[in-house]
Design a protein that fits this description.
alpha+beta, Trna Endonuclease, Chain: A, domain 1, five-stranded mixed sheet, about 40% strand
Length: about 120
Amino acid sequence: MASHNELGILGEQLALDYLVKKGFSIREKNWRFQKAEVDIIAQKDDILAVVEVKTRSSNFFGEPQDFVRDHKIKLLTKAIDHYVQTEDLDVEVRFDVIGIVKKDLDTSIIHLEDAFYHF
């Protein structure tokens, strides 16, 4: 497996651990609908957090969370609309981005709640 794939898998695990520590239960990971893949779907009380995880080994070219593009946002919103309807959920949906920079032994995690409002 390529090292960037391994880094992505590690980043998603770090994000899962982070969310669980914040009191979220994990409903899905790497959930797919049509062309969309949702990294993490987590819930805390009546909030459904749809989490896109971006992991990098450096922030030289920018912060990881800055790499979520409009096309991805459209895919995620369509997918989660389907998920909420299919699961018959009565929740507030929030789109978060967790940006992780993992370099050697140093790890930084930035959690942007309602991240799509920040773009």
